[in-house]
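[Automated response] Your request has been received and processed.

Submitted sequence:
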Amino acid sequence: MSRPVEARTALRLALLFAGVLAPLFGFGMLAEDVIEKELFFFDGPLLQFMHQHAGAALDTVMIFSTRAGSALALVPLVLLVGGWLYRQGERMRTWFWVLATAGAALLNLLAKLSFARARPSLWISILPETTYSFPSGHAMASMAMSAAIVCLVWRHPRWRWPTLAAACVFVVLVGLSRIYLGVHYPSDILAGWMASLAWVAGLALLLKIS
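Generated structure:
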C-alpha cells in the first residue's frame, strides 16, 4: 500500500471516529437524559454565568452572531454555494452540500418534535423564541454548513486551515449567542453540534468528499 493510500485510509478512519462515532455517542447520552427529563449539571451554571456578564456591547455582538446563524442569513448562502458548485460541474459535491445543509435542517425539525424540550425560562430574553429547544437549530445549521465547507475545501491545502479556523469561530459564536440570549440550554448547543457533525462527516465518508 502506497503512502498516499495509507494517508487517505488513516484520514477516513479518523473522520469515522472523530466525526461520526464519537459525536453520535455524545448526542445519544444527551438525548437519553432529555428523554428522562434529567437536568444537566452544567446547564444552569453556564446560563447564569453568561447572563451575569451581559451588557450593551455583548448584546450587540451576540445579537449579530445569532442572526448570522439564522435561516435568514444561511439559506441565501447555501443557495449561492450550491448554485456555484452546480455551475462548476461538481455534481457529487453539489449533492453533498444540499444533503448536508438541508438534511441537517430536516433532522433538527424531527428531533425538536420528538424531544419537545421546553426553552429555558431563567429570564426574559431580548430575542425570545417559542419553538422547542432540543437540539438547537442555530447550532445544527451553523455546524452543518461550516463542516460541509471544510470538507469541500479540504483538498486545497492553501484554504484548509484558514477555513477550519474561521468555521470554528463562527460555530462557537453562534452557539454562545444562543446561551447568552437565554433561549437555549448549553446541552441543546452541544447536541446540535454533535448531530450535525455526525451527519456531515457520515455523508462525506459515504460520498467520498475531500
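Summary generated for your ticket: The CA atoms of residues 65 and 174 lie 5 Å apart. The chain has a mean pLDDT of 91.
If you did not submit this request, please reply to this message.
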